[in-house]
Amino acid sequence: MTTDISKYRFNHTMYRIKDPKASLHFYTSVLGMKLLEEHHMDEAKFSLYFVGYEDPQSNGLKRLERQGLLELTHNHGTENDPACAYNTGNGENGGYGHIAITVDDLDAACERFDKLGVKFIKRPTEGRMRHIAFIADPDGYRVEILKNSAV
Asked: Does 144 qualify as catalytic in the annotation?
């Protein structure tokens, strides 16, 4: 039995989320992703939401045939639990990091995020790295924003 590693693809990463309404709004309305699929396991008390970008190469593909998706996992009841806060991996000990999204115009995107009330971790005008921004999703996961020089 053999496997062809040239056919391996990065399909998705998963974030645990506290409030699906807030997270879905952030990823779809703020970042422009599409809700591609959702599954509700009521007996097991959790739901899965798969979000990602649509492009000509992914049009019509099934979830497991796509690349670069984000799986948002909601454990039912956490949205009403004030003590619930997920470890984003960016605390004192670090670890995880962030996802990155490319945009057509970094300054215009940051201006739009400001108008939408998005929390900034780092603006392009701050620090030495003037070509990037970092914003936070509703659970505090970091999203790096970069200009796509190809568009």
From this structure: yes
